[in-house]
Write a structure and sequence with these properties.
This protein is an alpha/beta fold. It has one domain: Decaprenyl diphosphate synthase-like (Undecaprenyl pyrophosphate synthetase, 3-Layer(aba) Sandwich), CATH 3.40.1180.10. It has ten helices and eight strands. The chain is globular.
């Protein structure tokens, strides 16, 4: 796999340089015009619309489906792996911005259970890139007081990735700023199935009496057996590259989450795009199934 990865990386280098050097002026002008409409940082301090009372614009929990890496690269005549490489800078930029704004948790859909269907060479490169990120970003995470966590079937990842992840989580465990959570080998349906299985096992072992639970108690019992039970509900889900679906991501936690879809592909998504998503969130009225107070 590493030979295939190295070959793919070398073959894309020349194409990457040629494509980036030949970016069209019209493309650059359009991008600059879009950036110019980004809300000012001061705008993000205004109150948001909620069902009961005004609250802060900055959501407690933002989740992002980082879509469009491969398409972004292929549109420029590059290998798909170049899109994943460029996407790392977007992760860095958005995480810094979330930390600066005081977002409680930022959860990124980094690798799904369905992604194992991709070519082996691409998977090998993604795992290499993930391990490199986990090591290289330690200084950045510490400097910004960011705590790293993960969610998913982590035991299914390569051992070297598991070790790097465990070490970085350990190093940042005492940080008190934004929590950066990476969804790795994650699928929401599988999370719910695993939780239901654990609940059934506990009931069979006599550790819990399901018949004694009302609806609220049953919901709480299932929620307590999710991969990360303490994870707050998602307030805002951002999806890049224009697709309008959840893609098996945080289905339980997204029950009342707001959606923001942008046509910007993940490798181009930056702080101002993140600000626009939060500004959009600020315009939403959230009643959580109840009636709005007038």
């Amino acid at each position: 796999m590493r030979d295939a990865e190295a070959a793919a990386s070398r073959s894309a280098d020349a194409a990457s340089r040629a494509s980036e050097a030949g970016q069209r002026p019209a493309d650059r002008a359009a991008e600059q015009a879009a950036r110019a409409t980004s809300p000012k940082a001061a705008d993000l301090t205004q109150p948001a619309a909620t069902g009961a009372a005004p609250g802060p614009v900055v959501p407690r929990h933002v989740a992002i489906i980082m879509d469009g890496n491969g398409r972004w690269a292929q549109a420029r005549g590059l290998a798909r792996i170049r899109g994943h490489e460029h996407g790392i800078e977007s992760v860095r930029a958005v995480t810094r911005r979330a930390a600066a704004l005081g977002v409680g948790q930022l959860t990124l859909f980094a690798f799904s259970t369905e992604n194992w269907k991709r070519p082996k060479s691409e998977i090998a490169f993604l795992m290499h890139l993930l391990r490199k990120f986990l090591v290289d970003e330690r200084k950045e995470l510490m400097e910004n007081d960011i705590r790293l966590r993960s969610v998913g079937r982590i035991e299914g990842l390569p051992k070297d990735v598991q070790r790097a992840l465990a070490r970085t989580q350990e190093m940042t465990a005492e940080n008190r700023g934004t929590t950066l959570c990476l969804a790795l080998n994650y699928g929401a349906r599988l999370e719910l199935a695993d939780a239901a299985k654990r609940l059934a096992e506990d009931a069979a072992a006599g550790r819990i009496d399901l018949a004694a639970l009302d609806d609220t108690g049953l919901e709480a019992a299932l929620g307590a057996r999710l991969y990360q039970p303490e994870m707050p509900d998602v307030d805002l889900l951002v999806r890049t590259a224009g697709e309008q679906r959840l893609s098996n991501f945080l289905l339980w936690q997204m029950s009342y989450g707001e959606l923001h879809v942008t046509d910007v592909a993940w490798p181009e998504f930056r702080e101002d795009d993140f600000d626009r998503a939060l500004q959009d969130y600020a315009t939403r009225t959230r009643s959580f199934g109840g009636l709005l107070q007038r």
